[in-house]
């Protein structure tokens, strides 16, 4: 099992944000986490990557309990998290951002950058450009490229299509499919439920901090409840 989240409860002060959340991601899968704004999707990823702590339960990565592991140490254990809003280093160049992503793999910088440029040719053309001057789509590509520099076993993507034009959304999803094909396990948080379910092996639906439904991507895409709530059906 790549990731096992068992019965976590996360609070923001008095607000009970995640309630007994359990989910699993098997090696080689794309698992989607869908739900309305404020359902707890980003909170789930932040808890997995050590930025928030659960009061109960456990989180395991490749069989190792990481519930108490510091966020900065999880990268070297094979976990990469591309947060909502991209969070790239805006004042640095594209190249400098990528080099920062390789801090746990200092021997691998050159090969890693080459690999990222093959996946994202647009970044190669802009390698010396200040990241803050890139378009939204290019910034998303850079955020994903920077995460890939650590050669993650599990890549967590938080709303990668947010704020992008439809043509760029399609490009980002094509890249996700490519990454999956090349062996990266992916946990995807996405408000574009239709596209997420289309590429997901399995999916979970989060509602007010509770997992309400789970199943294969195809099953959930066919569910009347899901169609009504998230697919405009």
Describe the protein in words.
The chain is built from ten helices and ten strands. With 233 residues, it is of the alpha/beta class. The strands form two sheets. The protein has a six-stranded mixed sheet with strand order 6-7-8-3-9-10, with helices on both faces. A four-stranded antiparallel sheet has the order 2-1-4-5, covered by helices on one side. Helix 3 runs parallel beside helix 6. The radius of gyration is 17 Å and the shape is globular. The relative contact order is 0.18.
Give the topology.
Layout: E1 3-12, E2 15-25, E3 30-34, H1 41-48, E4 58-61, E5 64-65, H2 71-74, E6 79-82, H3 94-101, H4 109-119, H5 121-125, H6 136-148, E7 154-158, H7 166-181, E8 185-189, H8 193-199, E9 202-207, E10 210-216, H9 217-222, H10 224-230
Parallel strand pairs: 3-8, 3-9, 6-7, 7-8
Antiparallel strand pairs: 1-2, 1-4, 4-5, 9-10
Helix pairs in contact: 3-6
């Amino acid at each position: 099992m790549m990731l096992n989240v068992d019965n976590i409860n996360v609070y923001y002060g008095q607000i009970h944000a995640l309630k007994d959340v359990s989910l699993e991601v098997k090696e080689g899968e794309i698992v989607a986490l869908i739900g309305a704004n404020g359902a707890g999707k980003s909170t789930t990823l932040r808890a997995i990557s050590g930025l928030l702590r659960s009061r109960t339960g456990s989180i395991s990565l490749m069989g190792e309990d990481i519930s108490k592991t510091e966020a900065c140490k999880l990268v070297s254990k094979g976990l990469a998290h591309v947060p909502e809003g991209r969070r790239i280093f805006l004042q640095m160049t594209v190249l400098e951002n990528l080099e920062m992503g390789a801090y746990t793999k200092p021997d691998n910088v050159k090969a890693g950058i080459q690999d990222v440029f093959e996946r994202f040719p647009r970044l190669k053309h802009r390698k010396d450009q200040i990241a803050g001057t890139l378009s939204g789509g290019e910034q998303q590509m850079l955020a994903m490229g920077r995460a890939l520099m650590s050669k993650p076993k599990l890549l967590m993507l938080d709303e990668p299509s947010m704020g992008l034009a439809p043509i760029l959304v399609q490009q980002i999803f094509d890249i996700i499919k490519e990454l999956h094909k090349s062996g990266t396990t992916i946990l995807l948080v996405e408000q574009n439920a239709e596209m997420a379910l289309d590429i997901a092996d399995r999916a979970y639906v989060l509602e007010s901090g509770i997992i309400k439904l789970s199943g294969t991507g195809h099953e959930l895409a066919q569910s009347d409840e899901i169609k009504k709530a998230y697919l405009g059906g």
